[in-house]
Every structure is written in structure tokens, then in C-alpha cells.
Amino acid sequence: MNTHNPALDVAVVMRKERVEGAMSRWQPWRWVLDEVIANQASFGDQPTLLHKADGEERWLHPGFTVALFKDDAEGYYLNATTPAPGWFVHWRMEEEATVADEPMARPLEVSLSYHDAGRWLDAQEMVEQVPVAPDVVAWMLAFAREHYVEEPKRRKRPESFKPLTDRFGNPASVSAEKKFRGGHD
User: Is it the case that residue 87 has pLDDT exceeding 80?
Assistant: First the structure.
């Protein structure tokens, strides 16, 4: 582990499963995130078929490093303090098959930060979440508590002190002076 940016080496397991019911007319198979596990040297550096049965396939994608950065401590804190902390995995489908007979889902990035997941989702990328083990949550939370500095809440200026504007955004004025029309006294 790097002392400046503590990190974990992980592998991603993606599952190809048969779609059941009426939806199978349009899409007989789908890819989903199955789990994130600790990486081991024996995994190698290429995707490996772990299991193939009639209704599913499980593929191991090794070689991901999840580093924690001080400037993203809030993202880790938000993840660690939710009722269901998770790994966030950003993945895409291959354009052409590389290691299997047909294109497969390929993980691109793994993170523990809510902010990373939010950026990926804002870019309309495929992001899925799976639960994190309690020891990883404790590690992430300890880092977040050490580096996260909550921004002080700023006092909201009362509405009465805001300048008046008309419906077009131009400055407006209010007068207490009575206006009489038509020559009335």
C-alpha cells in the first residue's frame, strides 16, 4: 500500500445471465456486476471464464487498483455512512469480441467514491454497485474521517435584504406614497 494514497488491488466478477419472461424477446441475455473481490497474483492479467452453465456465465476481470485520495474524502465518507456502502464499477460492452466468442461486459474502473459514481452516471455511463465488506468500510471510513473537512454552513441571507426586481430582472422600487388619480383630493 502507498502511504500517500492507500489502495487495494481488486478483481471484478461480471455475470452473464439469461433474461426471463417477456423481455427475453428483445434481449435473451444481460450482463450484471456480480462481485468485487481481493485480487490475487494467480488471477493473471486477462479476463477468465470462472463458470459456464445453461443459464449463466461468470467472468473474472483482474488487475484493478482502488486508491483513496484526500480530495475525495467526502465521497468516501458519504459511501461509508450510508445504510448500504458499496463498490462502484464503471463498465462497457465490447464493440467486438476479444476473449470470448461474443462481446462481453468489460469493467473499466472501480471506486469507493460517491462522487466518482455520480460523474460516471452524469456522463450516462453504465455503473453498478455491489456491497463492500465491513473491513473495507472501516478502512474507508477511517481515511475519510482523517481527511474530510466538512464545509461550514453559510448563513442564508434573509429575503428582506435581497434587492427587489421586476419580472424581467430589472431593479424595482416600492413607495409608501399614495397616488391619486383623476384629480381626487
Answer: yes
CA angle 98, 99, 102 (to 5 degrees): 70
What confidence tens digit (pLDDT) does each residue in 141-167 have? 999 999 998 877 777 767 666 777 777
Question: Strand 86-93's sheet: what is its strand order?
Answer: 105-111, 86-93, 126-131
**pLDDT per position as a tens digit, 111-130:** 999 999 999 999 999 999 99
Collapsing DSSP states into helix, strand and coil, what is residue 9?
strand
Predicted model pTM: 0.78
Residue 73 has pLDDT above 80, yes or no: yes
- Rounded Cα gap, residues 117 and 114, in angstroms: 5
Cell matching residue 165? 426586481
- Residue among 138, 61, 141, 69 nearest 107 (CA): 61
Give the residue among 24, 29, 38, 181 at the shortest CA–CA distance from 101.
29
CA distances from 66 to 54, 95, 120 (A): 33, 26, 16
- Rounded CA-CA distance 62/36 in Å is 10
Under the phi-then-psi rule, with left for phi > 0, alpha for psi from -120 to 50, and beta for the rest, what region is 118? alpha
